[in-house]
Amino acid sequence: MTELRELARKLLSDGQVKVVIGYEEGPRGVRPLFATDGAAADRLIFDERCVQNLATYLDRRRVHVARLGKPAIVAKPCDVKAVAGLLRETQLKREDVVIIGVRCGGVLADPKSLQRLGPDTMADRCRTCETREPGLVDYLVGPMPEAVRGQSGRDAKIAELDAMTPEERWSFWQKELSRCTRCQACRQVCPLCYCDRCMADKTEPQWIESSPHPRGILAWHLIRAIHLAGRCVDCGECERACPVSIPLGLITRKVAQVVAQRFQHHPTDDPSVPSPIGTWRSDDPQEFIL
Amino acid sequence: MDAMTISRADLLGLAEDLLGSGIRVVGPAKASRGMVEYRAVAAASELALEGPELPARSLKEFYLPPTEPLFAWKSLAGGKVELMEARMAPPPTVVIGARPCDAAGVEVLDKVMGWDYRDEPYFARREATTIVSIACAGIDSSCFCTSVGLGPDATRGSDLLLVPIEGGYRAEVLTEKGARLVSGHQGRFRPDSGAAQAQEFKQKARAKVAAHAPPDARPLRSWLETHFDHPLWAEVALRCHGCGACAAVCPTCHCFDIVDEPEGVTTGVRRRNWDTCQTARFTVHASGHNPRSDQNSRIRQRVMHKFMIYPKRFNEILCTGCGRCVRACPGGMDLLEVISRVSALAGGAG
Amino acid sequence: MARIGVFVCHCGENIGRTVDCHAVAEALAQVPGVVHAVDYKYMCSDPGQQLIKAAVAEKGLTGVVVAACSPHMHEKTFRRAVQSVGLNPFLCEMANIREHCSWIHEDRAKATEKAIDLARMMVEKVKRNVALSTVRIPVTRRALVIGGGIAGIQAALDIADGGAEVVLVEKEPSIGGHMSQLSETFPTLDCSQCILTPRMVEVYQHPRIKLLTYSEVEAVEGYIGNFRVTIRKKARGIDESKCNGCGACIKACPNKRIPSEFDCGLGKRTAIYVPFPQAVPNIPVIDRQRCTLHIARSKGKKDACMKCSEACQRGAIDFNQQDTLVTEEVGAIIVATGYQLYSIGRDQPKEYLKGYGEYGYGTIPDVIDGLQFERLASASGPTAGKILRPSDNKEPKTVVFLQCIGSRDPAKGIEYCSKICCMYVAKHAMLYRHKVHDGRVVVFYMDIRAAGKGYDEFTRRAIEEEGAEYIRGRVTRLYRDGDVIKVQGFDTLSGSPITIDADMVVLATAVRPQPGIDALAQKLSVSYDRHGFIVEAHPKLRPVETNTAGVYVAGACQAPRDIPDSVAMASAAASKVLGLFSHEMLEREPTVARVDESVCAGCFHCERVCPYGAIRHKEIKDKTGKVIRVVAEVNPGVCQGCGTCQATCPSKSIELQGFTDAQIFAQINAFVG
Amino acid sequence: MEKGNFEPRITAFVCNWCTYTGADLAGTSRLQMAPNIRIVRLPCTGRIDPVFVIKAFERGADGVIVSGCHPADCHYTAGNYHARRRFAILRELLIFMGVDPRRMTFSWVSASEGAKWRDVVNETVERVRACGPFEGWRSLGGGLT
Prior knowledge:
The complex is a heterotetramer of chains A (290), B (350), C (673) and D (145).
Chain A: H1 2-13, E1 19-26, E2 29-35, H2 38-41, E3 44-45, H3 63-66, E4 71-75, H4 77-88, E5 98-102, H5 124-127, E6 139-141, H6 153-163, H7 166-177, H8 185-189, H9 214-228, H10 237-241, H11 248-263
Chain C: E1 4-9, H1 21-29, E2 34-40, H2 46-59, E3 63-68, H3 71-84, E4 92-96, H4 98-102, H5 108-127, E5 135-138, E6 142-146, H6 150-161, E7 165-169, E8 184-185, E9 190-191, H7 192-205, E10 209-212, E11 215-223, E12 226-233, H8 248-252, E13 258-259, E14 268-269, E15 272-273, E16 285-286, H9 292-298, H10 307-311, E17 324-330, E18 332-335, E19 339-341, E20 367-369, H11 370-377, E21 398-405, H12 421-435, E22 440-445, H13 455-464, E23 469-472, E24 475-481, E25 484-491, E26 496-502, E27 504-509, E28 511-513, H14 517-524, E29 551-553, H15 563-581, E30 585-588, E31 593-595, H16 605-609, E32 615-621, E33 627-634, H17 644-648, E34 654-656, H18 661-672
Helix pairs in contact in C: 1-5, 2-3, 5-18, 6-7, 6-15, 11-12, 12-13
Chain D: E1 10-15, H1 19-28, E2 37-42, H2 50-58, E3 63-68, H3 79-96, E4 104-108, H4 114-131, H5 135-138
Parallel strand pairs in D: 1-2, 1-3, 3-4
């Protein structure tokens, strides 16, 4: 903790950055902190409640954040993968951000949680995550955590769904999605959903209807999954942000499994690795094509 | 105001009676993943009446649905167009187990919905619905109903308020509708006996919320009127993702969008959908110009609308202190904190 | 408001038999926006087209749908028709109710219903069509030819003779390429230099050819008709304007024992040299790795030797000369970088290539390759045309030729056939027998591939008249045994192992592209296969074009080629270039992509999927000139209209004209909606 | 509607150079096939956006065909390779969300494979017929409900 705070104070004092985007103890759980001076920097923390993926705040379209000046960002391995995504897709220049990587042994599901980190309390995505130490960073802080691993309820659920009949899967998803009001929280918190004008907001023609009726809801979640295919870093923000607890992680995880198995692609913090969509191999599997 | 008591069993029985007589019963019920939501139940056994959770979304959607058709069109040869109005016959409904903050939210909405133009779909549903609330024990540290002139036992918007007592509830009849519901199901009610217990419950609940709730938000109006450009807005906006989850779960946010959806080449439907001032496209002009070009102005708009603009017009705060926006916010935005900060800036008003 | 006309064709009985064309017209008349719908026996006939033209004029149609045969059949016909009466051709579409309906269905009711759907879908598309006009791009009528071998020479001369300027770039000090190393050429056995040298001189003297030897392409910008090429002129150490090619400097150079590249190491050269006597230009170059003065300088010592400059009366020697960069504006580029031979050595340039351990990895001095044999056989070669083996300059009495060394041998990493070996081995056999009458020639081969004019006759002659012994089989081992090379092989026809005591062994090693071809291909953004051969735009129909418009390919850099093939390709490429140069403006189909800059997020997925490199980065600046956004921009000169960018664009900010989302959306709606 | 007398409605998205031409060949060869499909012609499978398939189902298609050039035959060199990845993902995603895989056909049909096109069409129609009408998606919201 002191390591992190001292580094932040240094970066701010010698003018390397104008703001350090990190985590602080809020009135109701851990929340993002935008530290612009030493005093604020002393509020920085990092622990298993630091769930949020702060890379989302690096999007230049967030003018109110961009106005603060060059940022440093406190980033877990999955967050760094998101930064790499922004670099890969020319949304960010490497020299325009300082990355303070934090070693991570997994986080809880909810920044407001009061539980201690354990195999059953840890966020589901962390139970299958291998990366403890982020690459691509300018600084690396924190002790190397022991690897807490757990059973992924998510993968089990996917297997369960795969075993169902199409009709059963259909009704499962219709029931889950029926709660969606198209509030777009899943889109807004996603570090890789950065378009100036989302396809779902395009009206001529309106491929994705804006109405939260089951048709518009399904179309939205399908296109979101497709656009994130091979790009999703599995930071879990969409599912966490959903105010009606739709299991969005099941969808992104399923697509990630398909991408990994078909194209041997896994989320990476190496910006030079091209995304699997936009590239191809002449021997890509095509067993489904007549 | 007369009161009766009703046992838990009889309350569920009442729900069954209503269902039996073809009346739609809406109430808090367990949804998947341990979440509670207000929904029309098929059996009283589905009802999860006293929490501990707050239903994820408010009662708003039963009056102002996330999406509703207004009319359908069909264009015919020769440039003629045929219109079909959406029929408006909402089913008779009794809400059982509404939270006082959600019931109050509906009454707050009545103002704007019936203001310069009377919103027919809204009021049709309003009239067809009776709200039976259950006084709340206070949920968690995000509650602040006591800061907006309400409380865990608020009666506004409810037709009947049930206050938990030993073995059941003390039912306080608040409106004609409430009275009709009671008289219609006399057998389920017993004479009043729990006044003292109920009083104790209310006091404990109020104390629980007041312990952490910010100061009274009603006096903030004047400060807000004069501090449109205060640096506070830029600061609190930083965390905001502009997602609108807050508005989606809010009992009083009521902005909507009108869209024309083609459903074929010649047919389509005009719909009314929820919208929110927190997204950039809410205010973007056809020209591409956006008067609220950054999140500061959008956050300010949300706070201003709730605590200054709406009060100015309707003498009513557009917030019931349910705390859903705080719980739902992925960015950790905190309306309680904003109220406290503004109060402090306004010189500790309230 | 759209005013669409629908014209339903009976195609005689072809459509009318199974589709009720009149019913189709009547149904379409009821579709909103359709103001005119008729059916007619033959729409493509003159009266049929008249029907359409008249309606366009009289009814003021804003769009036309012809429900008839396949657009592949008559789209151009009908678009021309509407154009003739002032309607933009791209406002006319065809609904295919013949190939896709009447010809494949029998049930009249169902076929008619389908025909109505197909026509309706097209009506909805046409409502959203917009007038498009052909893309016009200026063309710089000047060509760049990369490579001064026979292919490059031929291409340069053809273009220059055709009236356009040419810049010919050659990385060696002289043009001529491999052909200038050859002794005689198959199947006519005429002297290679005798036919090549005049062409080289022609190039040198041609008023419209700018020759840049000892130069390499550094960078390429731009697109078809408008390339900007940066070329590095490597420092020769000679002031070309002063040198008259007298050769005094070469005589003066004390450093005379340097293996000559031109003679494949069999001959020697000096540090300041011309590769061969007929070199064009006849201007020496200083090999700084070998020059005493430069070696001294590189070690920080003072200039050790200046004999050449002392010998030069014209003061043309310039030890301090530096590389210079020149830029050339050209409209088209021909790649003709040629080939190199695979070497059987242990060290290979690519990991998938393997050397020949069984042949001693090229360590046996009297095991040489085909080009070395050419030099031995060449009158201007190191042995003045005598066949003498390298180790002891004795005349070999038994020479064994091995074909397919590397070629057609996936185990060695090369699966393709090198094409020229069968022929030059037969040629070598003859040349040897002509020079060594009592000599024995043995050829190990897999198959004889002599498909070409006079080729089979030629190989037969080698076998039947010149007494070359052809053994079908592979050699399993080569090793030295005292004075001879033991060649152990297997005769697959007699089924017996065989050993031959050879004095010299000549390997017909595989043909590979020039080193560095991949780097060049990347600069030109043309694709190349795993071996580095440039990939043509279409293997059958566009053999000399590449997938980058304005870049063409000729000769052995595309695949193993012999001289006639290379020359033919070169002339073909030249004619393509002259065709391109025949207009001031290049006209292209307007069905190209366009970016909506106001919403483009600048993620450049479009750039990643574009097969043609048509996407450029465009900076959007604010009033102060500060870059606020970088968005995609389509180069209409390069875009070929596949639309992959649009399907990939997450925000749908790029649109393929003629197949926009709005048009396809409408078609989808029109069927099922 | 029972499955027996139900006529599937199938939208086909095909590329201009291979499959569309192959379908033309089927026509010129008079190969009889089921009349249930309607072709939308695109320049290249690379142009076929997953959202086309989604919209077709939304609008009540009972099945969808996507077809283009065989690998290495693409007129634009690589559009079909990009499409192949795109549709591999779309297909598994739709299956995961509960769409019956039999409703989706992906095929490579070259300009010379008129007979293959006929088979692709007939087999798809029969598979979709066996699934029955896709009420699931068609009935999702919309209208005045």
